[in-house]
């Protein structure tokens, strides 16, 4: 699958797409016993009964099966990572003032983009059904050494989509500019990513033989960012991994169509305040989900979602997200149901952009 990104609750996806995600706040997980069932009953997640056999992953019991997919082989790798060999069949008044304004806008845009589920595939790919192939990979927490790959996967997954195409111009011409700005932002926000009380940031890596330049033995091909949200929590840029943009030297905005961006941001923020900032209960929000286009078809997106749903189950919370039309089939197959449809009106006769606000409950 390609990508859907979530930024402060916005979702960037394909035309006719639906969805967006929001960043979270501090929330402490509650231990619970009532969601645990006997081995004879197993556990039910996303409307599907899971095998009772499980493995311990980052403090949660993760069944040795995937939601919406067949069983995978899982083994321990230290205390905080698992190695998985899936075996599946089928499926911008004054100059200073102007700069401050554009800085803030870029922060909003980046936030909105990253809060949208990057679970959408590039236009040429089909979301469902996907044919899964066996690939040895590791699902683990994001490390600082992963940030370069994180940015590359994020951009490559989102740029084919209509939201990116609508907001950014001369995408390939300014791709290095966009990459550098995003990379600086993430580096400044690294501490935010490490706080597991507010966020869950996981990546899937595969082994690589391209070690001559980087010296690394693996690369990130999929990523997921979840945020713990509390009722009536303000959608503050403080919670965005991209909010530091206002302090970076990326003020020229060479890569963004500012007229479109200002209009889009206004609508996106209104929608986020209505749906994401008006919560009645704590929830786990899928802020970003993306798989590099070169690694579509391996079920990585579904596997990432499964981890979040297991966390939500243990915390006795619902999981929510903003989905594009392309990502909708995946979420629907995992047991998410639609709560509202969000429409973003566009300029210059560009197709209308749609998102679907969705929710998942352990007991449905």
From TrEMBL:
<dbReference type="InterPro" id="IPR052523">
    <property type="entry name" value="Trichothecene_AcTrans"/>
</dbReference>
<feature type="compositionally biased region" description="Basic and acidic residues">
    <location>
        <begin position="33"/>
        <end position="44"/>
    </location>
</feature>
<dbReference type="InterPro" id="IPR016181">
    <property type="entry name" value="Acyl_CoA_acyltransferase"/>
</dbReference>
<feature type="region of interest" description="Disordered">
    <location>
        <begin position="33"/>
        <end position="52"/>
    </location>
</feature>
<protein>
    <recommendedName>
        <fullName>N-acetyltransferase domain-containing protein</fullName>
    </recommendedName>
</protein>
């Amino acid at each position: 699958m390609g990508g859907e990104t979530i930024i402060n609750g916005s979702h960037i996806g394909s035309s006719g797409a639906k969805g967006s995600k929001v960043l979270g706040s501090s929330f402490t997980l509650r231990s619970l016993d009532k969601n645990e069932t006997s081995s004879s009953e197993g556990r039910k997640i996303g409307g599907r009964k899971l095998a009772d056999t499980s493995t311990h992953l980052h403090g949660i019991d993760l069944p040795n099966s995937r939601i919406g997919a067949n069983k995978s082989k899982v083994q321990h790798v230290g205390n905080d990572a698992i190695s998985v060999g899936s075996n599946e069949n089928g499926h911008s008044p004054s100059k200073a003032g102007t700069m401050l304004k554009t800085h803030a806008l870029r922060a909003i845009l980046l936030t909105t983009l990253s809060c949208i589920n990057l679970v959408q595939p590039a236009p040429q790919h089909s979301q469902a059904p996907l044919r899964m192939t066996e690939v040895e990979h590791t699902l683990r927490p994001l490390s600082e050494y992963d940030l370069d790959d994180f940015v590359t996967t994020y951009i490559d997954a989102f740029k084919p989509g209509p939201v990116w195409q609508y907001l950014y111009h001369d995408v390939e011409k300014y791709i290095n500019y966009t990459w550098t700005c995003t990379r600086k932002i993430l580096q400044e926000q690294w501490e935010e990513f490490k706080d597991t009380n507010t966020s869950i940031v996981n990546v899937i890596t595969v082994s690589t033989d391209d070690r001559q330049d980087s010296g690394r033995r693996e690369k990130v091909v999929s990523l997921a960012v979840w945020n713990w949200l509390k009722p009536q929590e303000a959608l503050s840029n403080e919670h965005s991994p991209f909010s530091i943009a206002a302090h970076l030297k990326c003020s020229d905005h060479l890569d963004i169509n500012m007229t479109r961006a200002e209009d889009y941001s206004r609508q996106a923020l209104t929608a986020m305040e209505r749906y994401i900032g008006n919560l009645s209960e704590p929830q786990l929000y899928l802020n970003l989900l993306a798989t590099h286009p070169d690694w579509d078809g391996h079920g990585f997106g579904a596997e990432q979602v499964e981890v979040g749903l297991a966390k939500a189950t243990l915390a006795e919370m619902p999981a929510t997200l903003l989905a594009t039309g392309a990502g909708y089939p995946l979420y629907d197959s995992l047991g998410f149901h639609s709560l509202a449809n969000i429409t973003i009106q566009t300029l210059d006769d560009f197709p209308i952009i749609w998102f679907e606000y969705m929710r998942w409950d352990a007991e449905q």
